[in-house]
Amino acid sequence: MKRFIAVLFAAALACGTALAQVSGGLFRGGPMEVFDEADTRLMMDTTYQALDRPTIDNQALGFENPKTGHRGDVTVLRAFDSRGRACKEVQVRTEAQGRKGDNKLYFCSVEGKWRLVGDSQL
pTM value? Predict the structure, then answer.
């Protein structure tokens, strides 16, 4: 299940618009099911902002769409090296219409860009 969530989040980061349109089927029962395109974009932008911070201070960066009330936060939990790449463990929490989600994901810098990686790629 953890790998499934990671793959779906990667899709969100890669093509937020398309994922926002189909998220009801992909995230059944979770907050992402009711996220719209703007909610998804806010989550993605906040994730990149957290990853681009030079230090790890376990400070959550929050996001909220004032039109929908959907919100969440992103926290970089730790930085580490893996296979010669700079990597970060990230916690993403989301909330929408009383639904809550909490996922830990891994991102590594590949050719200067943050990419979501699965456990087997670390």
Answer: 0.77
Q: Containing domain of residue 48, as a range? A: 2-121
Count of the separate structural domains present in the chain: 1
Tell which residue, 63, 43, 61, 58, has the closest CA to residue 88.
58
- 85-92 mean pLDDT: 95
Which of the four pLDDT bands, split at 50, 70 and 90, describes residue 55?
Answer: confident
